[in-house]
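Input sequence (365 aa), recorded before submission:
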Amino acid sequence: MNMPLFFRKTELKTAILIAVVIGFAGNAISAQNQPANNTRRLSVFLDVEKSIDADFIRQEIPVVDYVRDKELADVHIIISRHRVGATGATYSISFIGYGRFKDRNYELNCWAPASNTSDMTRREYTEMIKMGLAPYLAESNAARRTRIIYDAVLIDPAAEEDSPKDPWNAWVFEIYGGGNFSREETRNSLHIRYGLFADRITRESRTRLRPYGNYNERNYLTDDGTITSTTVRGGFDSYHIISLSDHWAAGVFGDIFISTFDNMNFSAVLSPALEYSLFPYDQATRRSITLAWRIGAGYYDYVEETIFDKTREVLFGQALVASAAFRQPWGDIRAALVGFHHFHDIRSNRTELSANLNLRIVAGL
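Predicted structure, C-alpha cell format:
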C-alpha cells in the first residue's frame, strides 16, 4: 500500500501541525489484555545519512526497539536529505514494513527552511517520523499508551505574502582550499589546491559553476644541483540542465582545462546533452537509472607537439553515459559507464566504468 504524503507549509492557508506524543505508564500491558498480534513492542531499523541525528531520534522515540539488522525489524526507516539551493532542504522519510506489516509502505517529506537551526530541523523530522510510525504503533502493545494531538493554526495570507525572500535567488556558494608542505634534507614539496562551487538547484533547473586549481612543486637536491619539478592543473567546469518532464531533461556542459602534466596548455569543450530517466525524477532519492547523450566540439592547444604532429586542433565527438543509483533496504549501489569517441577517427575513443556497492549481509556486517 503506497500512501505518498507531502508536507509543504507554504502551500497551505492553514498550517496543520500534528505531533504524536508517546507517553509511558510503566510496564507493558499484559498479553492477556491485547490481541495475539499486539503483544510485543515495535522493532525499527534506522537507515540514515551522516547528517541525520540518529541518537536524537532514538532518544525522542523510546517506545520502539531499535535493531541493528533490518531482517529483525518490523519497520525499516530510510531517511535522505536533499538540499534545494539556499532555501533549505527536504527530508524524504520512507517507511518499509516487514513481517506482519509486509507491503505497508509509504513516504513522508519534511521541509526544513535554511533559517532553521540544526535543533529545529532535527525536531521537525523526528516529529514526522513519529507521525509515520503511528499506523504501526496502533497494532503494537503501545497503542493504548499513544496519544495524537491535533493543532490547527490559522496563517494570515498577508503575512505569508510578506515572508522574506531569498536574496541569493537559490544560489549556494562554497569556497575550498588546502595544501601541504614537507621538507627533508635532500628534497621538499609543496601542494596547493583551491576552488569554488556555485550551485543553483530549483524544481525547474540545475546550474553549476566550478573554477578550480592545483599547484604542485617538488625540489630534489643532487650532487649536480637542485632539480625542480612543477605541475599546474586547473580549469572551469559548468553545466545548466532544465527539466522537460518527469523522465526527460536537457542541458549544456562547458569545460575549460589546463594541465602541464597532461600536455594541455588550454582546452575548451562545449557539449549539449539529452537525458532520459527510467524512473520519474521524484524517485531519485531511492532509485535512479539514467541514459544521457552528449555531443560537442572542443578546442585543444598543447604544450608540446603531440604524436599526431599537432600543436592545436578542433575535435568533434560524442559520449553516451549510463548511470544507476539505488538506496534500498538491502544496501546502496552507484555505478556509471561512459563511452566516448571522436568523429574523425572511431579508434580515438575511451571507456570508463566506476561502481560502488554497499551490501548488508548479516547484522553488524
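Checked by second reader. The CA atoms of residues 49 and 80 lie 6 Å apart.
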